[in-house]
Amino acid sequence: MFTRIFGKPKQESNAVATLDKLNETLEMLEKKEKVLLKKAATEVEKAKEFTRAKNKRAAIQCLKRKRLYEQQVEQLGNFQLRIHDQMIMLEGAKATTETVDALRTGAAAMKAMQKATNIDDVDKTMDEINEQTENMKQIQEALSAPIGAAADFDEDELEAELEELEGAELEEQLLQPATTAPAAPVQAPASRISTRPAAQKNTPEDDELAALQAELAL
Q: Residue 128 belongs to what H/E stretch?
């Protein structure tokens, strides 16, 4: 396990170093290709000049060198193609290795977690939880149970008595006579009511006072 862990960075560094080397080689081949193409173009210009100068032999030599340069360019192109192919394969292998390492790490982590969580420990924990739940339920039932004189009362008898009371109350309401509202007093029209005050009956004292006043007036 420790060999794989410490060997992984080394493998990655080797893959990265190899890719860097291939990139450097590819850049070098591309530079050489540009130089050879430039030389081939130069030979073509020289051949044109020799042709204008009627120097046929020199012009043919220039064309031969041009073809040699073109053959080298073609060879460099094949080299570049092989390097590209090698880089693609190496990058694919690197990705595959990284994927396998990641999967291996995940499997090791899952195995460690499963080892830390034993099925027997899980069953034991669940049994303890169920036991504690049952104990708590029994405690709550014991606390809610009636104690003292209330424990001797029969719930069925109490419900029957309550039904009798409700029936008697309903029967009393049905037998109670209906009450009528008192009739409103009838008032006479205002036009027929006399506005004159009623005559008052004189008392003996009033008669004596009136007689005294009459005498004084004489």
A: helix 119-144
Distances (CA, A) of 6 to 9, 10, 11: 6, 7, 9
For residue 188, give the 3-state DSSP assignment.
coil
The helix (run of H) or strand (run of E) holding residue 210 is helix 204-217
Q: What does DSSP assign to residue 172?
A: H
Residue 91's contacts (CB-CB under 8 Å, 6 or more residues apart) are 19
3-class DSSP string for 59-109: HHHHHHHHHHHHHHHHHHHHHHHHHHHHHHHHHHHHHHHHHHHHHHHHHHH
Q: How far is 32 from 72, CA to CA, in rounded Å? A: 9
Question: pLDDT tens digits for 112-152?
Answer: 887 777 777 778 888 889 999 988 988 888 787 666 555 56
Q: Under a CB-based contact definition with an 8 Å cutoff, are residues 77 and 29 in contact?
A: no
Q: How far apart are CA 89 and CA 29, in angstroms?
A: 20
- Give the pLDDT confidence of 43-80 residue by residue, as tens digits: 999 999 999 988 999 999 999 999 999 999 999 999 99
Global pTM reads: 0.45
Cα 201-203-206 angle, rounded to 5 deg: 110
Residue reference for tokens 């029209």: 189
Q: Using only the alpha carbons of the chain, give its radius of gyration.
A: 64
Angle at 31 between CA 27 and CA 36, to 5 degrees: 145
